[in-house]
Amino acid sequence: MTRQNISSGYAFEDIYGYSRAVRVGNQVFVSGTTARPPHLDGDAYLQARAILALIADALAEAGADMRHVVRTVVYVIDMADTEHVARAHSEAFDAVRPASTLVQVSALTPTSARVEIEVVAIISA
């Protein structure tokens, strides 16, 4: 099977040694993604919206889109942000309704990040 590594050009990709997304066959795996400046100064809702836009861009480069997403994993540093993150998630996925997991963590990188999201997509014929 052919493997396609997708980079967003984010410097940490080279430092850490990972790809923003990887497509293998009809599956796309998007790495945990946090917001970038200036959105890192925003609340959890604004960060989540910015993250989902970055994910949509990575999916597009892989030949997929948000309707192909079958699973999300969402990390938050404060469970009080859940409602805000859920709002952004619902707006992005509407009727798609991927399987999803929400996990509270003690910290994210960069330190001003309140939310991180990763997805798995399957491109259907």
Shape: globular
What kind of sheet is the major sheet? 6 strands, mixed
Order of helices and strands: EHEEHEHEE
Number of helices: 3
Estimated structural class = alpha+beta
Radius of gyration: 14 Å
Q: Share of helix among residues?
A: 25-40%
Mean pLDDT: 95
Separation of the first and last Cα atoms: 17 Å
Write out key terms for the chains shown.
6 strands; 3 helices; six-stranded mixed sheet; alpha+beta
Task: Report on this structure.
By secondary structure, this protein is α+β, with helices and mostly antiparallel strands. Helix content is 29%, strand content 30%. The protein contains 3 helices and 6 strands; from the N terminus they run βαββαβαββ. The chain has helices at 11-16, 44-61, 82-93, and strands spanning 3-6, 21-24, 27-33, 69-76, 99-104, 115-122. A 6-stranded mixed beta sheet has the order 1-2-3-6-4-5, covered by helices on one side. α2 packs parallel to α3. 32% of the residues are buried.
